[in-house]
């Protein structure tokens, strides 16, 4: 019995030490070699945090590129001071759900109305992602919105398309994933030329 207790204590000590050592080593590697990513890939302008490159931001003004649809809950979380914390999630609706089909049709109608002259609405503008937090959209979805953005900012569509094109990220290693555009980075670039 005493041997079992001794072995249990030894195992607990080893597990605790390994947990602490592992955490410290991974944190040091992250801070040394992947500092920006380890700290959330926060984008700043004039020493002011604008947002994370890794998490979607809810843009709704016509002058901005819009990302994927987000389901945002403003009631779930509040700080100790009563400030609302945005909480986004996926819809969890099945692809055959009549509710989802109705939502997609409604969103498509709204997007078409706000982007006159454009036809087929890209799917990523009317559906949520698996996490509800994807910061990127397809280049097709970005170019689809170019006319609206150019009109709202009173700049040429050519300038908007150039900014979008300059922010296209190719497939990882040329084979993984899809080409994509980071919505926040495009909007920051749009704000720079509009000033």
Give the topology, please.
Blueprint: H1 2-33, H2 35-38, E1 42-45, E2 48-52, E3 71-78, E4 84-89, H3 98-114, E5 136-137, H4 139-144, H5 146-153, H6 157-166, E6 168-169, E7 180-182, H7 183-194
Antiparallel strand pairs: 1-2, 3-4, 5-7, 6-7
Membrane topology: Single-pass membrane protein
Subcellular location: Cell membrane
Transmembrane segments: 12-34
Question: Describe it for me?
Answer:
The chain folds into two domains: 2-35; 40-194, no CATH class. Helix content is 46%, strand content 15%. The chain has seven helices and seven strands; from the N terminus they run H-H-E-E-E-E-H-E-H-H-H-E-E-H. The chain has a three-stranded antiparallel beta sheet with strand order 5-7-6. Strands 1-2 form a two-stranded antiparallel sheet. Strands 3-4 form a two-stranded antiparallel sheet. The termini are far apart. The model has no long low-confidence stretch (mean pLDDT 86).
Shape: elongated
Domain unit count: 2
Which structural category fits the helices and strands?
alpha+beta
Nearest-angstrom radius of gyration? 22 Å
Q: Give the proportion of residues in helices.
A: 40-55%
Main-sheet strand order equals 5-7-6
